[in-house]
Amino acid sequence: MQNHFFALADFLTAELRGAEIFTCWFSGERSDFVRFNHGKIRQAGNVQQRYLSLRLILNGRQASSSLALTGGGEDFALAKHALAELRDVIEDLPQDPYLLYATEVHSSESKRGGAATAPVAVVEQIVTGARGLDLVGIYAAGSMFRGFANSFGQRNWHEVENFDFEWSLYYQADKAVKSSYAGFDWNVDELQLKMRTAVDQLAILQRPAITIAPGEYRVFLAPRAIEEIVGMLAWGGLSAKARHTKQSPLIKMEQGTRLSSKISLRENTIDGIAPGFQSDGFTKPPQVTLIDRGQLADPLIAPRTAQKYALIGNGANSSESPEALELSSGNLRNADAVAALDTGLLINNLWYLNFSDRRACRLTGMTRFATFWVKHGKIVAPVNVMRFDDTAYRLLGDNLLDLTREQDYMLDASTYGSRSTQSVRLPGALVAALKFTL
Amino acid sequence: MNEIVKDFASLKSAAPFWSLRYVKEKSEMLAVRDDVAEPPQLSNDRGAMLTAMVSGGCGYAATSDLSPAGLQAALDRAGEWANATRNASVIAYDPSNMPNARGSWSAPPSSAALGTRRELYQVLATECHAAKIDDRIVDRYTSLNVINSEQLYLSNSGAEIHQQFRYTIPHAYVVANHGSMTQTRSLGFAQQGGADILARAKFIGCGQRLAEEALQLLLAANCPSGKMDLLLLPEQMMLQIHESIGHPLELDRILGDERNYAGASFVTLDMFGKYRYGSPLLNVTYDPSRPEELASFAYDDEGSRAEKTFLIRAGILENSLGGHVSQNRAGKPGVANSRASSWNRAPIDRMANLNIEPGASSVDDMIANIERGILMTTNVSWSIDDSRNKFQFGCEWGQLIESGKLTSVVKNPNYRGISATFWRNLKMVGNAASFEVHGTQFCGKGEPNQAIHVGHAAPPCVFSDVDVFGGED
After folding, report:
1. 8 Å CB contact between B423 and A390
2. CA distance readout (Å), A404 to A323, A333, A397, A429, B458
3. 10 Å Cβ neighbour count for A131?
4. pLDDT in tens, B401-425
5. In this structure, are residues B271 and B248 in contact, taking their beta carbons and an 8 Å threshold?
6. pLDDT band at B110 (very low <50, low <70, confident <90, very high)
7. By the 8 A CB rule, do A180 and A165 touch?
8. What confidence category does residue A92 fall into, taking pLDDT thresholds of 50, 70 and 90?
9. Cα–Cα distance measured from residue A168 to residue B413, given in angstroms and rounded to the nearest whole number
């Protein structure tokens, strides 16, 4: 795919007229997706797709077109047609005062992969491992490709071959243990180990569940639950545009409110699997500190935002959302988490979070999968799903007791339109009180 | 299209059943923000999914390589997955029992052309500029997305279905701010059709209206807390229907397919035919026949013929939202709602158009009947548990109803409840004059994930004894 994309870029360069400039972004994948339900296969298939997003720039005006590519010679005609269409479109447009694109050439290439195991063999191992279990989930694997090129001669290529198996083992109704196994080299021994761990946890779920009354409870949030919470902070909270338009859920932090000094958040690009370049051709810095010991630091700044608000961009994508977020670790050892919780809720997963008051960063959401009642440092019973509604300023502020020393590295399992290249590295959190409402 | 039909005829597979689903989608997105035209975004997407089915197994392969060799290679990959799954599939696939309809459908003709790109930019710019009425207005955005989609479904058992759609989606929002208080008013509207949609959406004039309402919210008191009557306008009814009726009735959720991601359902197979879902005023239909509604079509993506069907009648649950494959698995009747978000995703059960049938009350009657209550509209927050039972929703706009009259505007209105009891408290249903057709492009579900468009039409409805509350003080 790399050679094909670069050949298209060279072709487009030769097709340009006069002062025309182009940038283009390539996104492709060759993926196998296999869904499971009740320990068997629900849907299995393969997706091969390639998209080119071409932007034509002329005298301060710009227009973009995205097109599906075939992967063959026909693509040159498709690209030429798209270029001609953009020429027509651009004639009608006024100059764009916020147009900004990279003019310095920074080419790069990164390829990361592992020892691929044939998907059919992997699926057989999963079905074998699931025998006698109510397993439901998805195995996604294959290669993902991202590329950038422009008429200045910049060429960037990023290729990742990996897998992500996300599954739940159900005991009954909504009582389940959720697990994941993601990486580059599939190892059946590791799968079996993770499956055994999940089966052990499933045994606890078979104890009679308890229902807690609404109120405040001490909680330990595992990294998967923290992922949901920082995901909400990232929904506009780390964006320069959202800050300038007063829509950030962290607007109070701009006026002095602080989170706990234990909270430091950074975009750690070199730790992730996302490309180190973005669609306007800018290179991302290795790290951007977003929250520093409880106080707002730099936002993510896309080129258009930089131009509009006279800022210096930092290679952010157009939505100014993080792609490799890291929350710093604390002092609590994972092994001591349940003892430190003492009495309260051990929450492995949260679900369906949203803002119940965005400007106050008040969040609501549900517990899901394995949530346990812990008494005097011992897991007692599973807890029926509960709704929480509380602000991030309490949860990650005064009520935050500690973060775990260990962080979990988690690949984003999202597959809307295409497989995601996002990741996070997060610790667990011990919280003195979280408000439950329903 | 003719090329695809011709190339399909030359494909070969050892599988007893195979099909091809071709999707070609052309779209254009125009937007203006703070009086500056955003660069237009054009899109030309096309590709095909080949599906092969053997006795007990099924596989698919999606490709953007539409050459005869590319399609054959995809069919071969689909056949390999079909064979690999034949002894380990959760579904007893039967290749001899697949729909094989032939037919066509196209979007309703528009009364007028949408206009040139330059004219459309002017409409967007006018509304965006009209929102600039006060220094506290800090962000103004207007946009129009027009999508033309063409789909072809072919099978080796004789199916040939050609469908054409045109989605027109105007959108606008205005943000007002003072200190740390920010309030937003927005317009979201999505239907099939052309220029007539801008009028139905009340898009012309929306800039100033949204700005005035955002400023009103900035000065408004916080929504009070307590149990009270709740009047939901059709815009918010869309979300209420979607989350607490639509998803729970999807048969693949009931069968457990979505338990690792989107969740299951509090509804079980034994409830159909007898479960009281709501008060006797509740009548819910799957209705693909309203031409302007977003998910109207004649056939779903497995080739089943779509027809209007009652799911809930007089409050009693009758039917599920399950397509051909799910119906066979569950041994229950369903509807034609097996749908895919595009050519690169396989069909699963989606709610399509899910509507509440009109009742007898006028909006004035509904307000006059409320002693202490609140009107809410325009969803801003949505959250519900994985069984689709415990929900909490928030709206942009709230207005108190006191002694039968609309009174103060309140900000940050939220309400929470439990699906299984909420619909039983349905107290009044608006009449045909108050009925509105809405829709969204962003219903998320499935592994791999799929975001798809759905339509929801409803009149305003009143619910009694609802737990209402506001934002932080």
Report:
1. no
2. 22, 5, 16, 6, 49
3. 9
4. 999 999 999 999 999 999 989 999 9
5. no
6. low
7. yes
8. confident
9. 35
**Nearest CB to B447: which of A35, A69, A120?**
A35
Distances (CA, A) of A30 to A3, A140, A159, A430: 16, 10, 11, 41
In B, minimum Cα distance to A250 occurs at B180
Tokens 């370049």 locate to A277
Which of the 8 DSSP states describes residue B412? S
List CB contacts (< 8 A) between B60 and chain A. Answer: 43-46
A-chain residues near B139 (CB < 8 A)? 245-247
Map residue B140 onto helix, strand or coil.
strand
Write down the number of H helices and E strands in chain B: 11, 24
A131 touches B: beta carbon within 8 Å: no
Q: Which residues of A touch B256 (CB under 8 A)?
A: 37-38, 136, 170
pTM listed for this prediction: 0.96
Comparing C-alpha atoms, which of B253, B254, B245, B252 is closest to residue B312? B245
Which residue is listed with tokens 């759905």? B454
Mean pLDDT of chain A: 97
pLDDT at A258: 97
Of A195, A193, A168, A198, which Cα lies nearest the Cα of A37?
A168
Kindly tell me if the per-residue pLDDT of B277 is higher than 90. yes
Cα of A12 to nearest chain B Cα, Å: 18
Residue A116 confidence (pLDDT):
76
Distance in angstroms (rounded) separating the CA atoms of residues A138 and A158? 25
3-state secondary structure chain A: CHHHHHHHHHHHHHHCCCCCEEEEEEEEEEEEEEEEECCEEEEEEEEEEEEEEEEEEECCEEEEEEEECCCCCHHHHHHHHHHHHHHHHHHCCCCCCCCCCCCCCCCEEEEECCCCCCHHHHHHHHHHHCCCCEEEEEEEEEEEEEEEEECCCCEEEEEEEEEEEEEEEEEECCEEEEEEEEECCCCHHHHHHHHHHHHHHHHHHCCCCECCCCEEEEEEECHHHHHHHHHHHCCCCCEHHHHHCCCCCCHHHHCCCCCCCCCCEEEEHHHCCCCCECCCCCECCCEEEEEECCEECCCECCHHHHHHHCCCCCCCCCCCCCCEEEECCCCECHHHHHHHHCCEEEEEEEEEEEEEEHHHCEEEEEEEEEEEEEECCEEEEEECCCEEEEEHHHHHHHCEEEEEEEEEEEECCCCCCCCCCCEEEEEEEEEEEEEECC
Predicted confidence at residue B430, as pLDDT, reads: 98
> Could you tell me which residues are beta bridge partners of residue A388?
A365, A436
Q: Cβ neighbours of residue A87 under 8 Å, at least 6 residues apart?
A: A56
Instruction: Say what the pLDDT of residue B1 is.
Output: 81
**How close does chain A come to B181, measured CA to CA in Å?**
7
Q: Report the alpha-carbon distance of residue B173 to residue B444 in Å, rounded.
A: 23
Per the document, the length of chain A is 438
Please indicate if any CB of chain A lies within 8 Å of the CB of B371.
no
* pLDDT tens digits, one per residue of B218-257: 999 999 999 999 999 999 999 999 999 999 999 999 999 9
CA triplet B133, A249, B415: central angle to 5 degrees? 90
pLDDT in tens, A157-205: 999 999 999 999 999 999 999 999 999 999 999 999 999 999 999 999 9
Write the DSSP string, B193-242: SSTHHHHHTT-TTHHHHHHHHHHHHHHSEEPP-EEEEEEE-HHHHHHHHI
Neighboring chain A residues of B383 at a CB cutoff of 8 Å: 352-354, 364-366, 387
- What's the pLDDT band for B332 if we cut at 50, 70, 90? very high
User: Which pLDDT value is given to residue A115?
Assistant: 75
**pLDDT the model gives residue B452:** 98
